[in-house]
Design goal:
With 294 residues, this protein is α/β, with parallel strands linked by helices. 34% of the residues lie in helices and 23% in strands. Helix 1 packs antiparallel against helix 2 and helix 4 packs across helix 10. The longest helix is centred in the N-terminal third of the chain and has 17 residues.
């Protein structure tokens, strides 16, 4: 049943429209290779970027089947960022967004990942792309204030802060800082936040950054996970709208920004200064993903 679920996702993925058979072949090839070779391999992510992949690393292997797993959001990043920009990857996991930003585009990236074993893979991906001068890595969590928090550590892409009363498997205690504290005199152009429901707390520690007009866009996951901490994600939407951000999704094929009434159940792109952002994505050079150009 799990295989059927994965295949269904591959077939329906927007990047695979018109190339579904090739995508299924890539899935089968990857599964066959895993049977013969249980060791990590280096996979070409885009024309200028590569990433370490191995069985069970779902945040990476989905890109093997679907080009860009989070198609709208990764496509937006690739078309919006420029080489002199600063991107902040909050909840970086093993670094797919980080690698796209700094290896493919050449932007500077601050990459934040709290789980030590995941952070180790993130650092390896930075190393194999020779991004030591482009990427600054932080093995910390983020919140509204400095301190320490307990995180799950064995849930792959959905590791998260342990909520009060939550029963979890393996747990690790992690240092926590505020996003504002990481910046002295430079504001990011784009931030991605994927912290499995703890977005409210991350944003509460980023008020100075959020208020600065230099920040043009935020890619944020709002999927209902905030309720485990008692957070209403509608309040995040209201906060961002009050700061002059508006919610969008993005079509990388047509480079169209599509306005939304509110956030979706997955990632949503919040944009401030629509005209500036629109001109950027339209003018961006093409990026090669698998055998296609976006």
């Amino acid at each position: 049943m799990e295989v059927l679920r994965i295949l269904n996702g591959i077939i329906k993925h927007p990047f695979n429209k018109g190339a579904r058979l090739n995508a299924v072949k890539d899935f089968c090839k990857w599964q066959f290779n895993n049977m013969l070779n249980p060791y990590p391999v280096i996979y070409t992510l885009t024309g200028k970027s590569k990433i370490i992949a191995f069985k069970g690393l779902t945040g990476v292997t989905g890109n093997i089947y679907c080009g860009l797993l989070e198609f709208a959001d990764m496509g937006f990043l690739l078309h919006f960022l420029r080489d002199k920009d600063l991107f902040v990857d909050v909840g970086a996991n093993v670094g797919v967004y980080t690698i796209l930003s700094s290896a493919e585009i050449g932007a500077e990236t601050i990459s934040i990942e709290p789980i030590p074993q995941t952070f180790h893979l993130l650092a390896q991906n930075v190393l194999i792309n020779n991004l030591g001068e482009k990427v600054k890595l932080y093995n910390i969590g983020l919140g509204r204030e400095t301190g320490r928090l307990k995180f799950s550590k064995n849930l792959d892409t959905v590791n998260h802060v342990i909520a009060d009363g939550e029963s979890a498997g393996e747990v690790i205690e992690v240092e926590v800082k505020t996003l504002d504290s990481l910046f002295s005199n430079r504001i990011p152009d784009l931030i991605k936040i994927d912290v499995e429901g703890f977005e409210t707390e991350v944003l509460a520690g980023a008020n100075n950054i959020l208020a600065n007009p230099q920040l043009k866009a935020i890619i944020i996951e709002l999927n209902g996970s905030g309720y485990r901490y008692g957070f209403d994600e509608n309040e995040i939407h209201k906060k961002l709208v009050d700061l002059k951000f508006k919610p969008f999704t993005y079509d990388p094929f047509t480079r169209s920004l599509l306005g939304l009434e509110k956030f979706t159940n997955h990632n949503t792109i919040y944009i401030r200064d629509y005209d500036f952002v629109r001109e950027r994505v339209i003018a961006a050079p093409k990026v090669k993903v698998k055998n296609r150009e976006l």
